[in-house]
Design a protein that fits this description.
Structural class: mainly alpha
Oligomer: single chain
Order of helices and strands: HHHHHHHHH
Distance between the termini: 33 Å
Strand content: under 5%
Helix content: over 70%
């Protein structure tokens, strides 16, 4: 239930997500060990919450929560690679998170390969027509625009729109089938 509440708070950009994510990460580590899939996922989500809190909140949370997104995610990536593998969703999320952080920090040369690799990994994990790929494509397109690569971003964003349109069309067909 805590994880679902944290997801809801994340959607609403609510700073209350951060202490909840900290509690979840600590609890997972105690319950399942420091390198379990559940703990690593909780830790990646905690770093993401710290990043969101830093950029989306008007409150000064950096001192209170010792926010150092880059070093924390850089520490997590090798652990995820070792214990989960390079194509595990948590590992991919960690790499994409680092790429996004570097892009926002104006470090295009470091960010772009991570952003592109994250999209490739997502396509490999879920397939080219999956909604997760569309969301990753949207994020990659936005980051490429931020990095000054609008030409590369356009076909990626068009592909994402196509996937979203197909998903919406499919969802609408299911809705009509069950409710009308």
């Amino acid at each position: 239930a805590k994880s679902v509440l944290a997801d809801l708070l994340e959607l609403n950009a609510d700073p209350a997500e951060l202490p909840l994510r900290q509690e979840i990460a600590k609890g997972m580590e105690l319950a399942t060990g420091p390198t379990s899939e559940e703990t690593l996922e909780a830790k990646v989500r905690l770093v993401k919450a710290k990043w969101n809190a830093t950029f989306l909140s008007s409150a000064n949370l950096e001192e209170e929560y010792e926010i150092d997104v880059e070093s924390q995610i850089r520490e997590l990536i090798p652990v995820c690679l070792e214990h989960l593998g390079s194509l595990h969703p948590v590992t991919v999320e960690a790499k994409v998170l680092l790429g996004g952080f570097l892009a926002i920090s104006g470090r295009a040369e470091e960010a772009e390969p991570l952003v592109r690799q994250g999209l490739e990994d997502t396509q490999q994990l879920y397939g080219r027509d999956h909604i997760q790929t569309a969301m990753a494509s949207t994020g990659a397109g936005i980051m490429l625009i931020m990095l000054g690569n609008g030409q590369d971003a356009e076909p990626i964003l068009r592909e994402a729109i196509s996937i979203f349109n197909d998903a919406t069309s499919h969802h609408n067909m299911i809705y009509k089938e069950y409710y009308f």
